[in-house]
C-alpha cells in the first residue's frame, strides 16, 4: 500500500501479514480522494476512520494536511501498527481500540468526514447500524459526510440519509449526508 498524495506521496507502507485487514486499493482510494478534494480543504476538517485496519485512509488524510484524525479499530495489532506508523511519519492520528458500534454509541464529538470500512461480509443489517448510529448521535458536522466502503454486491441505497454511491472495481463507496 502507498500514500497517493500530499507530503508523504509515494511512501510505501508494509503492514504485517497477520493483521485481519483488507486495505482499500490504491485505485479506489485515489478516486475517493479526488471526490473529497473537490468538497473540502483537508487542513480544515476532522476525520473519523472506523474499522481503520492498517490506517491506510488515516495516513492519506494526514499526508494531505488533516490534523484532527481519530482511527478506531477493535484489533490491538491494528491500533499498534497505526500508532507506530503515525509516529514514524510524525502524523497526528489519535487511535482508539474499541468496538466501532460501542464507540459510535458513546461518542459526543462531531466530525466533518466519517469513513467506515467494515468487513465486506457484513449483512445489510450490520451495515445499516453505522449510518443509524452516526445520525442518531449527531456525529456529523452540518456539511459533513459519512462514507461506507463495501462490496459492489451490497446495496445500501435504501438506508436513511443515503445520497449516492461510486463504484471502483469490486469496491463501492456509499455516501450519506444530513438531509
Q: What would your notes on this structure say?
A:
The chain has 179 residues and is of the alpha/beta class. Helix content is 30%, strand content 27%. It has a single domain, classed as Vaccinia Virus protein VP39 (Rossmann fold, 3-Layer(aba) Sandwich), CATH 3.40.50.150. It has helices at residues 26-37, 56-63, 76-89, 100-106, 124-136; strands spanning 46-50, 68-73, 93-97, 111-116, 140-151, 162-168, 171-177.
Low-pLDDT regions: none
Report on the biggest sheet. 7 strands, mixed
Number of E-type strands: 7
Overall radius of gyration: 15 Å
CATH class: Alpha Beta
Under CATH, the homologous superfamily reads: Vaccinia Virus protein VP39
* Helix proportion range: 25-40%
Amino acid at each position: 500500500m502507498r500514500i497517493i498524495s500530499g507530503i508523504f506521496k509515494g511512501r510505501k507502507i508494509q503492514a504485517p501479514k497477520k493483521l485481519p485487514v483488507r486495505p482499500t486499493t490504491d485505485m479506489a482510494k485515489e478516486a475517493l480522494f479526488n471526490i473529497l478534494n473537490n468538497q473540502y480543504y483537508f487542513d480544515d476538517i476532522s476525520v473519523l476512520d472506523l474499522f481503520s485496519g492498517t490506517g491506510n485512509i488515516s495516513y492519506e488524510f494526514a499526508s494531505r494536511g488533516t490534523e484532527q484524525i481519530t482511527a478506531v479499530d477493535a484489533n490491538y495489532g491494528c491500533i499498534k501498527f497505526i500508532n507506530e506508523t503515525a509516529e514514524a511519519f510524525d502524523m497526528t492520528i489519535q487511535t482508539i481500540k474499541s468496538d466501532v458500534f460501542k464507540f459510535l454509541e458513546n461518542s459526543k464529538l462531531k466530525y466533518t468526514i466519517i469513513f467506515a470500512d467494515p468487513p465486506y461480509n457484513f449483512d445489510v443489517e450490520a451495515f445499516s447500524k453505522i449510518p443509524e448510529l452516526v445520525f442518531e448521535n449527531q456525529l456529523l458536522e452540518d456539511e459533513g459526510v459519512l462514507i461506507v466502503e463495501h462490496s459492489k454486491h451490497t446495496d445500501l441505497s435504501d438506508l436513511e440519509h443515503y445520497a449516492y454511491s461510486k463504484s471502483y472495481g469490486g469496491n463501492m463507496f456509499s455516501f450519506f449526508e444530513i438531509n
